[in-house]
């Protein structure tokens, strides 16, 4: 038996809680930007994914018009910093609603470093930085999806094995429902099956 939920009949927040508890686990883009007057900004966004391969484009959604979005609209640039386990509480600190003009780098005591191709700073302790130029934005209801063309990726050599980012070294954090966060559990490998090699459904093999 299933229980039915109709978004049209539910308070916005209740359906949001259902969506964010069931679209899980979500990767976290720790997005750094800079305002026109030079204030550095940093905030986590878990409505985040790859949008396109060629050109390489990532996307995240701002629910409402937050400083991150305002800075991106003003400057056209942002950096996605990888959210790893060791940065758990620092990432959460940067989700505090500090007033406009306060830098989360300073308020949360997070060390920065310059980016190579864009103006926003990178998080020094984050193992991967994707430096982005805005490709486009799409408004949907109360949210704005930001698409960013990745113009440079800076990856710490500590997380690379034979030139490839290794999951056991990256140790990503994920966003779950409520105030829950997750880490990676068991990692399994399973190659995709070509049609030429198909031997029937898994349940019959
Ligand atoms: C793990 C995590 C994920 C979040 N994901 C999003 C998101 O996808 N979109 C969003 O608008 N806010 C999200 N937030 C809330 C913002 O980080 C928060 O509103 C922040 O203060 C925005 O900062 P800003 O005004 O400096 O941009 C998230 C918060 C946390 C802790």
From TrEMBL:
Q: Coiled-coil regions in this chain? A: none
Q: Which residues form the Flavin reductase like domain?
A: 21-165
Required co-factor(s) are:
FMN
- The source's superkingdom equals Bacteria
The yes or no answer to whether the keyword Flavoprotein is present is yes
Q: Which InterPro entries match?
A: Flavin_Rdtase-like_dom (IPR002563), Split_barrel_FMN-bd (IPR012349)
Q: Does the keyword Cell wall biogenesis/degradation apply?
A: no
Q: Which key words are in the record?
A: Flavoprotein, FMN
Q: What family name appears in the similarity comment?
A: Belongs to the flavoredoxin family.
Q: What is this protein called?
A: Flavin reductase family protein
Q: Which organism is it from?
A: Streptomyces siderophoricus
């Amino acid at each position: 038996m299933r229980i039915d939920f109709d978004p049209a009949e539910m308070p916005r927040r209740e359906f949001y809680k259902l969506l964010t508890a069931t679209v899980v686990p979500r990767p976290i883009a720790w997005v750094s930007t800079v305002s026109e007057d030079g204030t550095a900004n940093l905030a986590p966004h878990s409505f985040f994914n790859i949008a396109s391969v060629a050109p390489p484009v990532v996307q995240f959604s701002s629910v409402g018009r937050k400083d991150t979005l305002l800075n991106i609209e003003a400057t056209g640039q942002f950096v996605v910093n990888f959210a790893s386990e060791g940065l758990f509480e620092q990432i959460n600190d940067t989700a505090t609603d500090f007033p406009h003009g306060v830098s989360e780098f300073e308020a949360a005591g997070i060390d920065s470093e310059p980016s190579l191709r864009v103006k926003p700073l990178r998080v020094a302790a984050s193992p991967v930085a994707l430096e982005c130029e805005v490709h486009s934005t799409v408004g949907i209801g109360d949210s704005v999806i930001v698409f960013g063309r990745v113009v440079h990726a800076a990856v710490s050599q500590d997380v690379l094995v034979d030139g490839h980012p290794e999951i056991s070294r990256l140790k990503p954090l994920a966003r779950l429902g409520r105030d829950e966060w997750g880490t990676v559990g068991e990692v399994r490998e399973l190659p995709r099956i070509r049609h030429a090699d198909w031997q029937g459904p898994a349940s019959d093999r």
